[in-house]
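Cont'd.
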Amino acid sequence: MFARSGAGGKRGEAGIAPTGALCDNAEVPELPEVETVVRALRPLVQGRTLRRVARVDAPAGPKYEGLERAKGQRVEDVRRRGKFILMPLGSGDTIVVHLGMTGTFGAERPRDHVRVEMVFAGGSPARLYFRDPRRFGRFVVVEGEDFSRLPTLAALGPEPLDPAFTAAALGAVCVGRTTGMKALLLGQRAVAGLGNIYVDEALFAAGIHPETPAGAVPGRRLRLLRDAIVEILGRAIEAGGTTLRDYRQVSGESGGNGVNLQVYGRGGTPCVRCGADYVVAEVAQRTTTWCPRCQRRR
DNA sequence: CGCATTTCCTGGTAGC
DNA sequence: TGCTACCAGGAAATGC
């Protein structure tokens, strides 16, 4: 599982199943983990009518607003866009949820840190609880599909697993940019859904130093990067699926099965490819691990 | 507009 | 045991 890096403690607990959570990924939710949650959620809520959606143990404010809009509405679907969960309602309005680091959904009422409850009009489960101990998450209902209050969602780049995500598309957003490649990928506008872990993995696979100015990355490397992103996320979603099956069988098993991390959390140990020790440093305000030999600056 | 920096928030851990 | 210090993370806000 996750190698524990020297500094800091365990990874965030998002998705770790307190009793009854729908997904027990032991990872901070990035695209594959959110996809797993969406797949678990859909059969439970699609087509059902909400009696109400209410804030529980959470302050009023922009992180939990518009919930009254969902009253009496049918949930048409559960979708994912980047790391956002979208639930279009019969009225045309949209529930938008971001898990942050520690957001989870569950049908069983947790003891604490419940931020929002979804109450259904008949059927089972009767309620779903959104739990988020660290309150990095967000749960709002917006009018129609007006995402202007969620600028990252409004300006989100292409879905990495869509055909539209090509090396050419990636290249187009890199042209003339001085921002480091890691910062660019974390920014969600070049491509949607990557977080700290998968950015490090993809840059390693493509042999790109995380601080390389985006505009200076050669086309050849951008093609490698695009392919690495697609492959790594695809594999991780498979692993999420495994986690989901595990949950159905027996809960308590940690997620990330089958995800083979090649760099993240391996600082100070030898590179799996060349044997040089991985370097750890802060890049783009994130703990970053890379191989100084396989990933050279420009 | 681009880009860098700061803030939000709490649980877990290290060290005393 | 109890205390302090600090770190993890994504998005939004702020500053230049």
